[in-house]
Model the fold of this input.
Amino acid sequence: MLYIVGLGLGDEKDITLRGLEAVQKSQSVYIEAYTSLLSFGVSSDGISTLEKLYGKSVTVADREMVEEKADAMLSEAQNSDVAFLVVGDPFGATTHTDLVVRAKQMGVDVKVIHNASVMNAIGVCGLQLYRYGETISIPFFTETWRPDSFYEKIKRNRDLGLHTLCLLDIKVKEPSLESLCRGKKIYEPPRFMSIVNAIEQLLEVEQKRGESAYDEETTCVGFARLGSDDQVIAAGSMRELLTVDFGPPLHCLVIAGETHPVEREMLSFFAVKQ
Amino acid sequence: MLYIVGLGLGDEKDITLRGLEAVQKSQSVYIEAYTSLLSFGVSSDGISTLEKLYGKSVTVADREMVEEKADAMLSEAQNSDVAFLVVGDPFGATTHTDLVVRAKQMGVDVKVIHNASVMNAIGVCGLQLYRYGETISIPFFTETWRPDSFYEKIKRNRDLGLHTLCLLDIKVKEPSLESLCRGKKIYEPPRFMSIVNAIEQLLEVEQKRGESAYDEETTCVGFARLGSDDQVIAAGSMRELLTVDFGPPLHCLVIAGETHPVEREMLSFFAVKQ
Done:
């Protein structure tokens, strides 16, 4: 059996009792390292916080390992219990569909243990989840690559009065261009897009496209470390949010559509103080 | 402090360690009874499963009690820790925004402990969460009340190639019309809309409106008791899903938009056997 266990958003205490049971009866435990694991006590020294809680060792699996060694992990799961831990929910913002497809093809039973993900936890700011349109992703712009296909989607959502969740780019274990040229892999340090960076890119695209999808005065909500004890949630115009110190990653951003009175009342509790 | 604790979707084991800690240090524990609590061991005999796990008594709070007695609960939370438990996530499909607004107005600190909700757990069928449009609700039709404003929303999502989550009506502790006329409250037995009922209503509306938002051959995914050990997930055309025995509530339904190859591969694992 392969258990795919969501860890939730905060730290090691956000696992469910059902998830903890699955981990404790598994012979091997892997944790995906596609996203920031810092709040889960996973550091370069190892993953002592989780291992202490679980009472067993945990192997950190980066994307490369999951892609290259999935078959070995799945073979193991044919004859014993294996737990694969993921931050958030197994099918939230980052999805693990490929792993499930491969498991099913190999005849491995898969059991998913759900948890909170950014896709539902953003509800905490008071904007109703059923009034969101399509979710978008904002990639890091480079000198030569400034894709803006998210712009139409935001415009469409806003024209319909719907809110837009913007997932912000994460670069973890990306081989550097230089190292690729030299034929050996050296990794760039991890990068996590900040809310300020995202808003700057959004405003740049609005200036270029000029279709008034949004502007500096558009109400947004910024979330940092959502679900953690030190989470920061701030509501205000794009211009106002540019002045907020949200602190360390992960960040995400919601662009509000039309808001109802109760939604506005909730947002006022998170309003940026000027 | 008022802790609003998500219980997740399955049973008492889906609480997080963080949530359990909050319950255990709270002086009073309430559980909202707006949705089905059967899988949480909450029956007419009481709520023994949860009480046994928590080691303390739990008060079932129906919508009426929360509306009428919220102030008493919040006053208590001004001077001690109170836990308010909700099925799923506190800000998932059913929202508790009003309670938070009242708490903040009374100066009560609120801490939200997230968990899985239907809004993110539907990701398990393989349809990507970021490709969903606006969520809709399908109400029980009566002889005289057959509202179909959800139709335009489905059409819009489908025109954009987006998936649509349909939340199905729940009637818990609704006063009967007869009892309201007689001036004393007698409650109707609880009703939970089934997938079959929802599809019948959807097809009736399509026939009436005739704008080809969907038809009998449109691919859908039905979910029953999502997140529980006995969950049922079935993918197929509306016509095919009408033949599936999904068993007891809760049910929800997804109407697929355009699907990508990996999405189709995942759906094939849940395909209705003909």
Observations:
- Chain B touches chain A through 55 residues (CB under 8 Å).
